[in-house]
Amino acid sequence: MSVLPDELWRSIMEIGIETKTLDYRNMCCLSITCRRLRRLAAEDSLWSPLLLSDFPSTTNNLKSSDADRIIGRDSNYASTSNSSGKAKNLYQIRYEKDREKKRLAHRRAVLRIESEIAECLRKIREIKLQCLEEKKKMNEAVAELLNLRRIRQASVALNVWQPEMIRSRQREMVQQTNVPVDVRINALEMEVSLCKQQIAAFDCAIRFQRKRHRTAEEKLDSVKYHPFRDLHSSGCRVRSKRLKDTLD
Q1: How does pLDDT run along the chain (248 residues), one tens digit per residue?
Q2: Structural fold of domain 109-221
Q3: Among 4, 17, 46, 142, which one is least packed by beta carbons within 10 Å?
Q4: CB burial readout 56-84, b (16+ within 10 A) else e
Q5: What global pTM score does this model have?
Q6: Which residues contact 182 (CB under 8 A, 6 or more apart)?
């Protein structure tokens, strides 16, 4: 390595950057191998193409003179400060800003999905309460309907001969009703039918909200998934388990 001149190493790295073989990760890895490559890997002539390709909006926001200096168009500046590392520093600043922007966007996406999950759970609870109220209303209507049907049977039974004790009880049941029995029975039957339809609609809405909830949870797991972090945590658990088994 010490036999090759700096110009050759610089040309090799420039070719690697032009052919997309080397990126910022490779340049950082090269810079920690030795002092010579650390000095060469910090030159503006190498980081300027990376800055242009990875963050084209950065150079558009700069002044023309600054852009010429960064991308190496000013030959005097390139010859005097070829290893100043301004392009690398600018790349680092732009990379950190872009990473923070992505982190905030990821956080917003997570919060949006979590709010969607909370909204689904709230709607499920609300629909369940409405369904319980509708079932309670239907049970009351069914109980009243059964009572009215017994009263109608009692009124029909008054037309035939029966023992006086049974007849007096049936007459008392009929006299307690203040509304026409047949009209009220028809109204209650219609009300029970409507309650059943409403309960079926509530059940369908609950299934739909649960499906949305499952989809949102799967989406949240996908957004939160980080392979290296999960691998590291699982590796730590495996190592701790092995250590515990060894100690035991």
Answers
A1: 567 888 888 899 999 988 988 888 898 898 898 888 888 888 888 898 888 888 887 555 554 444 444 444 444 434 444 445 688 888 889 989 989 999 999 999 999 999 999 999 999 999 999 999 999 999 999 998 888 787 676 665 555 555 665 556 655 655 566 667 777 888 889 999 999 999 999 999 999 999 999 999 999 998 888 765 544 444 445 444 444 444 34
A2: Helix Hairpins (1.10.287)
A3: 4
A4: eebbeeeeeeebbbbbbebeebbeeebee
A5: 0.60
A6: 152
Sole residue written with tokens 């650390």: 38
* DSSP summary character for residue 10: H
| Ranges for all domains in the chain classified under CATH 1.10.287 | 109-221
Q: How many Å apart are CA 99 and CA 128, to the nearest integer?
A: 43
Q: How far apart are CA 24 and CA 96, in angstroms?
A: 13
Residues in Cβ contact with 171 at an 8 Å cutoff, skipping those fewer than 6 apart? 154, 158
Residue 201 amino acid letter: A
Which amino acid is present at 126? E
The whole-angstrom separation of Cα 103 and Cα 97 is 10
For residue 33, give the amino acid letter: T
Instruction: Give counts: helices (H), strands (E), the chain.
Output: 11, 0
